[in-house]
Amino acid sequence: MYSIAIHGGAGTLTRNQMTAEREQAYLSALKHSIDASTLLLMEGKSALDAVEAAVRLLEDSPLFNAGKGSVFTHTGKHEMDASIMEGAHKRAGAVATVYGIKNPISMARRVMEETEHVLLSGEGAMQFAIENNIAMESEEYFYDELRYKQWQEAVKKGSMQLDHTPLDEKKFGTVGAVALDRHGNLAAATSTGGMTNKRFGRVGDTPIIGSGTYANNKTCAISCTGSGEFFMRAVVAYDVSCLMEYKSLSLQEACDIVVHDRLLSIGGDGGLIGVDVLGNICMSFNTEGMYRAARNSEGLESFAIYKD
């Protein structure tokens, strides 16, 4: 048996804000990602391979705030964060505030597999990328006219925004994937460009193991998207696992408590995707919508954007 779920961000996503063409573009990107990762799982590849492949394809799309679609920082750059974790041995790798990296999720996996560390950041991480021939792209590769205009708007207003939409909307474009493979192993991966107009090397929950990403073969694999500061304060991904392990809650029960109770109680909004050791999938969010898709070997197939 195998299961996989992916997300491309949560927030104020309503039908009247979306053109038919743009909606189809998002759904097509989700389908492309889950098709490729599902094929790997069907071939008997690992959950780790599947989540990396799924996130790489979402990073390659300008539609999402990760990789190619990353938003502009205050200085007009693109600083990206990513993390990956496997549930069998709880190995994890992450990168923060890296720039020019084509696929930050693959760099995070290299950190996990080729170093003794979990999280590399800033210039040290960039040195690691250079020494290990991590694929890089020029600044032009990351340029997007819509994101540029939104950055300019944010600069004028002196504010930060949590993704690549107009300032009067709230949507979080972080991408992620969780999977259970045929060997019974879980894995999770998350990648983001962070906040538009962010300053001072700001880092959110995405590269923080236990906050934005977590995997444990005893319980579940989780990938989060939302207002990162709140997800860090609530240690969201690990909290779901703890509720399952220590209170014997189901995946759905644990996710709903964390997303609809604990997060909201401190003012946090967003969502998460999860899969447990039995292959159950949860996609829980407290916003108007979340770009999401899921598939398993039992015939489940789901693609959705809005709450309903």
Description of the structure:
The chain has one domain: 4-Layer Sandwich (Glutamine Phosphoribosylpyrophosphate, subunit 1, domain 1), CATH 3.60.20. Helix content is about 35%, strand content about 25%. It contains nine helices and 13 strands. It is globular. It starts with a strand and ends with a strand. About 5% of the residues have low confidence.
Brief summary of the model shown:
By secondary structure, this protein is an alpha+beta fold.
Q: SSE layout and pairings?
A:
Elements lengths: L2 E9 L8 H23 L4 H13 L20 E7 L5 E7 L5 H11 L4 E3 H10 L7 H4 L2 H13 L13 E2 L2 E6 L5 E7 L20 E3 L4 E7 L1 H7 L1 H12 L3 H15 L4 E7 L4 E5 L3 E8 L4 E6 L2
Parallel strand pairs: 3-4
Antiparallel strand pairs: 1-5, 1-6, 1-12, 2-3, 2-7, 6-7, 8-9, 9-10, 10-11, 12-13
In total, how many beta strands? 13
Instruction: Write down the overall mean pLDDT.
Output: 92
Structural domain count = 1
Helix proportion range: 25-40%
Number of helices: 9
Instruction: Give the structural class.
Output: alpha+beta
β-sheet strand percentage: 25-35%
CATH class group: Alpha Beta
Order of helices and strands: EHHEEHEHHHEEEEEHHHEEEE
